[in-house]
Design goal:
By secondary structure, the protein is of the alpha/beta class. 38% of the residues lie in helices and 19% in strands. The radius of gyration is 28 Å and the shape is globular.
């Protein structure tokens, strides 16, 4: 059937900020849907609160609302826009839950809006465990036994029916908070007690455990004519018990027999029909018993899922795009396949290669939490690799992770006894390095069977790893030869690894390969195993004969992407790379994208003219450049990843365009940067560098405590700390020298109570324009990626603003910046200090671009191609009439035992944006977008360090005036009451009951203000903050944050907040 003509305007709900378990895969699917619907002539209205996404670019939809994704905001937009339909299946769980809420509270009915893509019944049937079980039983499929309990008696009844081990999942909590696996009654009691407390409705679900079973996923699409296609089968390397987002996954499935696969395929199709999904993509998860082959259905998502991005990138079949077209009435046999242009979307993709995805974790950011993987997701990103065999793909994926590994290998203790014990412990409890410990176990001579018993990783995979290790041994023992070299490359070994085996440098291996003419060829990802010609050049490398690349004669530029997402290097850098691609095509230059991240828009096959899905390492990038011979390469947009390659690329004669690697080094290298500061006569906090603890202690004594200490050449403030005394500094130095060996440790005077400012500027080599000046809400000492910030600045005097502009222009000119640059300043006692300069794209670029309505990364690309700023019509700072607030979003609920205090090391996974005409409302919207309710009445709990007491009085007085009740701990309450501010006293956790956390649990507190000084806070403060986190109560750990919240509440009490699209803000 052709598309529907009775609907004209469609509203899409995005997925909001990047959080663990819901990352930029949904920006990728949302962007595809926007493009697909507008291609069909529909008007698209979009809501999404995340400024770092491509989908919130004003060109992507007709009306772009950067507003909190709450039922309230959606209702306001519907009332204003009157869309005909709402498409909720492309915004992850957030989009789905919000759509269900507006459907159930009658908003869709009131405004006559139809839900397309999935009906309310379908969503409930798939999401509600009881309904899903009944549906599966009806079609003769088994699901794990389970039951719901609200008290201990019910728990014991259900447990006796199911039998141990039992998986406990509290209802209505995010990300498995408060859940776990119980192996006996005592553990069950412990977990259930925590689970019932954590659940909003004091309910837990107990489920039969299928731990150790093999896990599979099928990506399925069905249309209303009952055409069903399986896009891709995915097998988990880790067995059940590890969340699929945490597992290494392989496509296509490797260990199913044909019969088993057909059974699973039939089951998936029956499920789609029974649940009633008829307009889009779904993801169905199965578990298979490794010995008996019994199959059960784990769950299904009636929407485009996290794995859909992986399946799309693995096959070249654009699931989200097709899902959007099915939602508006097309059937699969009417939609042409973009890649072949001959086949229709009703043909199932066939692939003649193997794809491996490995998640990327950042446990080093949360040292208080155990590195342990379970049913709740903890990874912050992922990387994917394509090879002709599993071995090749796995080895490429390992080096794509960017954790300093180029092959297998894990440091182990010397003693055999300790070694064996450590290996066993690491194999039995899944953790982020288990792949590497598995290899060590096999090296130690532990049999495949024993490793299988400990890990439940299918023996087929273990044999593959054993083959790679046997090849390693052979290479180490044999004399290097061209024949061995060729065989090793075919198995996916990196030059770095071969160099280690043969005692040569990476460059020596590379030169030797060049002499022997051992180079990779590039194969196409074409959905049809080369049966038809492919029109979208999307490549992976392998060591075979036939090369499928078709280098053109056009002018071309390669963009090096950022690799897997991690804390400190997220989607913002991918955003810049995508913009570079758009700018190149606007300028008539061919764009070549090099990246290894399957979640992002940059690795979509139609973003660039050519896509190379390859590890972002020097070896792999040089191969692509040798094949394509681009006229220029952009390294300044992908964060630290491409910058780390810049020197190696330059040495190999690669033409880097824009700011030179030497200029970047002048800004990053402490001594060279100091020369610039002195030459230009700027202020810098007193500082020093040290290579050992002794020198560090002497430097700190000279500078005076507190000092800010950090390793050099790391991203996201890794291992950065504020140190108040010598013993803490000693302790810090021993750790820091491990993080960044061979690089000096930087020591700065810490400017207490200074205001930090972030500046983004654009320079064409002669003229420089300051694009945005952002004032941080949190004081200096909190990483800029974690601090909320405001544009335009609210409290900075005009004289300082002028000075900031002047100094930014001086620095740009001195460094010879061509493109983007970011500078961090601090203002203290009326003086301006330069903290750091980054002559590259920074993580604030998307936010500033959205705030001022100018695509900075696009302009920067054009400048790097030789355009001037005046030619581009960008000649002065734009000061918008509206206020934009960026707020960070944190993953603390995923990491038990972690304190939520902010510091100089970055911990946020994503960000949201609040826009309005007053600071108070913009800040309030940013808090709502981050998932909090901003109260306009109730109780505010205050407990602040003595150091902050004088500053809290005015804030407390304002809250009292607005009618809030103030509750405080003894010291704070006495201080406030002495100053005529009425405050009730409450007990700390260590002082008896009922204490403050009891009050939080009973819903008696609406806001928490709790500050500490220094890195270590008391156990009491930890309990308070953890209580606020578990019950999702608005909290702040800084005085500046408290002041901003006070302002937000004041504005919300004054007037009803409104919604407005970006397109309108830019007109005003």
């Amino acid at each position: 059937m052709p598309k529907r003509t009775d609907i004209k305007k469609i509203m899409l709900i995005g997925s909001g900020p990047i959080i663990i378990s819901q990352a930029c895969e949904f920006d990728y699917s949302g962007t595809q849907a926007c493009k697909a619907l507008r291609e069909e002539g529909y008007e698209v209205v979009l809501i999404n609160s995340n400024p770092a996404t491509i989908m919130t670019d004003p060109e992507m939809a007709d009306r772009t609302y950067v507003e909190p994704i709450t039922p309230e905001a959606v209702e306001k937009i519907i009332a204003k826009e009157h869309p005909d339909a709402l498409l909720p299946t492309l915004g992850g769980q957030t989009g789905l839950n919000t759509a269900v809420a507006v459907a159930e509270n009658g908003v869709l009915g009131k405004y006559n809006v139809e839900m397309i893509g999935a009906s309310l019944d379908v969503i409930h049937k798939a999401e509600d465990r009881e309904k899903f079980r009944a549906a599966m039983e009806k079609i003769g499929l088994r699901v794990p036994k389970s039951g719901f309990a609200r008290n201990i008696d019910e728990v014991l009844d259900i447990a006796s029916e199911i039998g141990f081990p039992i998986i406990v999942r509290p209802s209505f909590t995010l990300g498995g908070t408060g859940g776990g696996v119980a192996y006996n009654r005592e553990e069950l009691m412990q977990i259930v007690k925590a689970g019932l407390e954590a659940s909003m409705i004091t309910e837990v679900m107990l489920e039969e455990s299928v731990l150790g079973w093999k896990e599979y996923e099928l990506e399925v699409m069905r249309d209303k004519a009952d055409n069903v296609v399986i896009i891709c089968s995915i097998e988990n390397f880790d067995a059940m018990g590890v969340h699929t987002g945490e597992s290494i996954t392989v496509a296509p499935a490797q260990t199913l027999t044909d019969r088993e696969y057909q059974t699973m395929r039939d089951a998936a199709i029956s499920i789609m029909r029974e649940i009633g999904v008829e307009t889009g993509g779904s993801n169905v998860q199965f578990a298979v018993h490794p010995q008996t082959g019994e199959m059960i259905v784990v769950e299904m998502n009636p929407r485009v899922s996290r794995s859909s991005a992986l399946a799309s990138k693995a096959t070249g079949f654009p699931i989200a795009k097709i899902a959007a077209k099915l939602a508006v009435g097309y059937t699969l046999d009417e939609i042409p396949n973009d890649i072949t242009r001959e086949t229709m979307a009703s043909f199932e993709p066939t692939i003649d290669y193997c794809v491996v995805k490995i998640p990327r974790w950042t446990f080093e950011k949360f040292p208080e939490t155990e590195d342990f993987l379970t049913t709740s997701m903890k990874s912050v990103g992922e990387t994917m690799s394509i090879g002709r065999t599993f071995k090749e793909a796995l080895q490429k994926a390992i080096r794509s992770l960017e954790i300093g590994r180029f092959g297998f290998g894990q440091k182990l203790p010397r003693e055999v006894m300790h070694r064996r014990a450590l290996i066993k412990a690491k194999l039995i409890r899944p953790n982020s390095l288990r792949l590497f410990y598995t290899a060590e176990a096999l090296r130690e001579g532990i049999s495949v069977e024993e490793v299988y018993q400990m890990t439940k990783i299918d023996p087929w995979f273990l044999h593959q790893i054993a083959d790679v290790l046997a090849a390693e041994e052979e290479l180490k023992k044999s004399a290097p030869s061209a024949e061995l070299l060729r065989a090793a490359k075919r198995m996916g070994f990196s030059d770095r690894s071969l160099g280690m085996f043969w005692n040569k440098t990476e460059k020596e291996i590379r030169d030797w390969r060049a002499r022997e003419e051992i180079f990779p060829v590039y194969k196409l990802v074409d959905t049809c195993a080369a049966e038809f010609e492919a029109y979208t050049p999307y490549y992976y490398s392998t060591y075979e004969q036939e090369n499928e690349t078709r280098p053109s004669e056009k002018k071309k530029v390669a963009i090096i992407g950022g690799g897997p997402n991690r804390i400190g290097q997220g989607i913002e850098f991918d955003y810049c790379c995508v913009h570079a691609s758009f700018a190149l095509s606007e300028e008539g230059v061919e764009s070549i994208m090099i990246n290894s991240n399957p979640e992002t828009v940059s690795t979509d096959y139609d973003t660039s003219d050519k896509l190379f899905f390859e590890p972002v390492t020097l070896e792999d990038v040089l191969h692509i450049i040798r094949t394509e011979k681009p006229d220029g390469v952009i390294v300044q947009f992908g964060g630290q990843t491409p910058l780390n390659l810049a020197r190696g690329l330059e040495a190999a004669g690669v033409p880097i365009i824009g700011t030179t690697p030497d200029a970047i080094d002048r800004a990053e290298n402490r001594d060279r940067f100091q020369e610039i500061v002195h030459k230009l006569n700027l202020n810098q906090p007193d500082n020093d560098t040290a290579m050992d603890a002794e020198k560090a202690l002497a430097a700190a004594a000279r500078i005076g405590y507190p000092v800010l200490v950090r390793p050099s050449y790391v991203l996201g403030g890794r291992s950065m700390e504020i140190v108040y005394d010598a013993p803490t500094l000693k302790n810090f130095m021993s750790k820091a020298l491990e993080v960044s060996p061979g690089h000096p440790i930087l020591i700065d005077k810490f400017l207490e109570d200074a205001i930090e400012v972030d500046v983004d500027a654009l320079s064409d080599g002669t003229a420089t324009v300051v694009a945005g000046i952002m004032e941080h809400i949190e004081e200096a000492g909190i990483h800029s990626g974690d601090s909320a910030c405001i544009l335009p600045p609210v409290t900075i005097p005009g004289g300082i603003i002028t000075l900031i502009e002047e100094q930014t222009k001086m620095l740009a000119s001195e460094l010879g910046v061509v493109g983007l640059m970011n500078i961090q300043y601090a203002i203290k006692d009326g003086n301006l200090y330069v903290l750091e300069v980054n002559p590259r794209a920074s993580r604030t670029v998307p936010f500033v671009s959205k705030a001022i309505g100018v695509p900075l990364a696009k302009l920067a690309t054009k400048v790097m191609l030789g355009k001037t700023l005046s030619e581009l019509n960008f000649t002065g700072r734009i000061i918008p009439k509206h206020v934009s607030v960026k707020e960070a979003v944190f993953p603390f609920n995923r990491f038990p035992e972690v304190d939520i205090l902010l510091g100089p090391e970055m911990k946020s996974t994503g960000e949201v944006m609040g826009i309005d005409y007053s600071f108070g409302l913009a800040f309030a919207k940013s808090q709502m977008a981050a998932g909090f309710k901003v109260p306009t009445s109730g109780s505010v709990f205050i407990s602040v360090h003595d150091y902050h007491k004088d500053k809290i009085a005015d804030i407390a007085r304002s809250f009292r005036k607005m009618g809030f009740k103030i509750i405080a701990t003894k010291g704070t309450a006495k201080y406030l009451n002495d100053r005529g501010i009425e405050a009730e006293t409450v007990l700390k956790v260590s002082e008896g009951r009922p204490h403050i956390v009891d009050h939080i649990k009973n819903g008696e507190i609406q806001m928490v203000i709790n500050t500490s000084v220094g890195r270590k806070s008391s156990r009491d403060a930890y309990h308070i903050r953890h209580g606020a986190l578990t019950y999702n109560i608005l909290y702040t750990t800084t005085i500046a944050g408290a002041r901003a919240l006070c302002e937000a509440v004041k504005e919300l009490k004054k007037e009803e907040w409104q919604v407005c699209p970006l397109q309108e803000y830019y007109k005003k």
